[in-house]
Amino acid sequence: MADLKEKIRDHKMVNLIKCILAGFVTRDALIPIVTNVMEAVKVSLTRQTGNLTCGVCSTPNVIDCPAKDICDRNKRKCSFHAKQKFQKCGKGVCQTVRDAISQLHRHENPSWCNTDATQWLTESWEVAKCFLPPQGYDDKDSADKTDINGILNLIINCRDFDNEIGDDLSKRENVCTIVREKMRSIRHASQTDVPDVIMHDVINALTNLLKDIRRPGNFPECIKAISKLNEIKQGDFDIKSESIDVQQDVLKELVSMNLEEKVEYLYHYFSKKIQIISTEIATLKDVSETKHARLTEDFKKDLKNFYIKFKNQLPIYPLPPHVKGTVGDLYVTPNVIRLDHGKNNREVQPHRHSFRKSYSADELHLSDVLLNHGNIVNEVYMIGEPGVGKTAFCVKTALAWASNHGPTDTDRFFQFETLGQFKFVFLVFLRDFSGRECDVDKMIYYHILANLPAKYTDQFLQRVLDEEVCLIILDGLDEWRHRDDSDCYCGAQTMIPRRRMRDKCLVLTTTRPWKMAFARMSSDIEIERRFEITGVKDPRDLAEKVIQCLNNKTGRNVLPDDFFNSVKDHNLTHCLNVPVLNMQLLYLWYTGGKLGSSVCDIYRNMIDMLFGQLRMRLSSGSDMEQMSDDANDKAQDGLLEKLQKLAFDTLIDHERESSIVFDQSVVDKALNSDEKKKALQVGILTQRSFLQPNAQHGSVLSFLHKTFQEFLAARHIATSVSQAYNVEKSIANLDGHMLRIQDFATFFEFMCGIDSEKAVAFSVSLMNFVSNDCEAKLNAIGTENSVQDLQNLHIIQQAQDLVLKGLTESKSNQHEAHLYLTHVTDIHVKNTQVWRELVKRNETRIVSVYLQEHHDKLTIDVFRSVFSSSNDTLVYVTLKERRTEIDLSRCRHLKYLCIAGEKEPAITTASTGKMVTCSLERVTEGTEKMMFAALSNNSECLQNLHVHQCKHTNDLVNMLPELKNLKRLKICHVDFTKEPIERLSGTLTYVYFELVIINVVTLDRLTKLYEGSSHSVTFKLKECTVVPHQKFVAFKEKISSSNKYNVIKDGYKMQARNLHLDDVFDGMDEMYVFKYSLNPDTKLNTDDRKCTTQYDRTVSSV
């Protein structure tokens, strides 16, 4: 009861009532205006018909089939015209009226489903209903029964109101659209609390609309309404002062807003009689809820039927797009791996080149993707390279939900129990909305509900999404770009489509890796759960299904084993895990084509086969003039040349999402109509129609697959780009576009197989990109984390793998490209022989080395040769877990050195003259002695030093003051009680001690070194032992009371609460971080912010 009284006193709830009432007041004032205008429209229509009337033709008789937004184009029989067909009016009246109404509509798209054509010339409101929204207004037979949203849409859509409103109604934003959006936001609000500022904003917008009436003197209702709105806006306004009828209308509106139990609080703002009436309203709501429940079940049934009927097919690449097989006949279980916390786990996944199934006990299922400990999550991202089956995965998921039965043995990945937890599954192909729509809810409406019966309105969809457990599948984030619209509400966040926060909705998004990399750079995007489709679990299963499908279409009896034997003979087994390559190989073999011995051969032969099939189809037609083989070849070459340029131009499009799916205008610039038709007939280009948000039908084009586009683009550079300048320009375009190596991989592989000389130029550019990335990481390195983790090993591995893959493809095409490899690692090398040859060839230009202990003498010898040959180029070196001797003393450009986990008798010497970052973690005594001496003698450029464990503390203490330009220092696991630090470099800005034993006298002396310094210095102690305890407490009190220091964090101070030390360790965030600054109000820098997020503990010894 106390809670109820508190709610009643809340004026924010009164504000909601005020907004609803203000809407009614404004609507009532506009009714005389719209009634007069529509009566004038009816008179005008009658005049245009020569005062003739019909009264016989129904709306379906008058409207041609198919009509936009009414007729079911995807069904054989149109439900709108099922009982009454289109026919010409016997008196020639109705089509005239229809055309006149269309011309009156601002968008020439009247809502024919609302209206009864038999009454157009007798009832003016039947004409008005043509301008109302298409859902929810067919039963409104007068202005009095139409809500403010309908009235506003009438004014906006009917051109005759241009003379009644002062503002320009043709603008996207005008006085009416502003009111409409503000009233919608109130109408669809899920909260009863409306702040004063929003209430004032809504009522001011309504007032502005009424003040914009051109002839207010003719409509005294507007003058009275403006006064009434000012009255409502006042703080002491009471709804009880209104008539019972008005109160009842407002309360009904509130009940219809689905505020559920919150409405009971609103009852108490109304008079006693209304509180009694509210019981009747609640009964009406119960009836409405029953109707909604039935509608929901109907929707679920229709949605499942929609998927089964229209989404149950998959293309068989590279057959023409119209040749497809059912999902059940073709789909095979995907190989899905988890990518947690930004780590890529693909290295630990075995590469399966076997033809047999390999299910493991810990294999992932759909439940692992969509659920977290049995609970539905909100966001999941599924990434995958081109052709691995992302779209097929989405379609299969929707169909598995719609199928209403448990999985078979072949598709047990899609667990029925998991999908059964979702009341609805919505599948949206983002490519259909690229550059056109950014709101996910609208995409669902146009993609799905627009193809279902009209009873499923946008309002119904909103309620379903708000209340039901839903899975929203967004396929192809990389093929979507934000619409070009300055009026969009997305603001700066344009990397992903806009979605509303709903606890019961899970959004599953698929994308290629490059888009995910960019999305993760945005601080506004939370990406917690990521998975990757790496291909199919069982390549044999896919091949068997495709062969069976082809056998059914051709009547042949081809055996899968024959195909696999042929693939083995051509050394192409590695292509089978990628579905698109698997099917291309299979279809080439099935039709008697050449398989070749390389990936380029596959695509080259596929394109030749597609053109050959078209020639065969056309030559059998009687309407085609026969051409000679030479003429055919010449026409094919000419078209291919244009397609290659189109592929390249679109691939380097700076709107990266437009590079895969592009508008017709792009193709029209590259191909004439005949060439475009032929490209579509061949199947290299595909065209897809879609429904745009403005209800117009449009179409976009794309290549058969992105890999075909990349192959053709590579051929364009090989055949058309000759001058060195143009090659460099092409590289610059691609480098600026493909900022992630993964997205560059397939194109580069094709380039290596087609033109080795130009592939070398691309490899140089690729290596330069990695070098730039390493330099950027070097300049950003601090001491918060272990230094060797910041060299970005992952990108070096990717680049090396890419070059090795390109070299293999080059050799497979009988020419070896002398590719550049300047960044080398021995981790996860698959073909060590090819790798050694490649490194040996590039040993005089190596820039970075990441060497992990290798017991293979040949590999160690390769690195030793690199170190002796790359004296003028080597910049970054990481050496881990070694027992061997390494001499880097002649590498005079070395900027980065990390040595970790050395074991005797290993010893490392290095040149330190240009060194910027040095990390010595658990090194041998010999290495420690050599490196400390080198740094003491020559360290002009050194800015970052990390020492983890130390054999001779005295040598470290003597070295530290000699590092004249050091900025960041991290020391771990060192005891300074016997050999205290006397001095540090005056240039330090960050001092980090971890697991260090130090005397408080030393700590106090170090801090005093920087008092009076012109720059700030941050000190961090993590899990350190500071002795003695009492003096450390006094030291911290001095720091806290000083105006020269900011205490950023003191987790240890909580220990004073009579807690056992173990309890402190278990439950406290113990760490001590303080910062010296001339200005105690200085904002935290990046390093400081890192400090406050770590789980650390610092203790004092008694």
TrEMBL record:
Give every NACHT domain span: 378-479
Q: Which PROSITE patterns match?
A: NACHT
Q: Which UniProt keywords apply?
A: ATP-binding, Nucleotide-binding
UniProt cross-references to InterPro entries, sorted A to Z: DUF4559, LRR_dom_sf, NACHT_NTPase, P-loop_NTPase
**Keyword tRNA-binding among UniProt keywords:** no
| UniProt-listed SUPFAM superfamilies | P-loop containing nucleoside triphosphate hydrolases, RNI-like
- The source's domain of life comes to Eukaryota
One GO MF term, please?
Answer: ATP binding
What name does the UniProt record give this protein? NACHT domain-containing protein
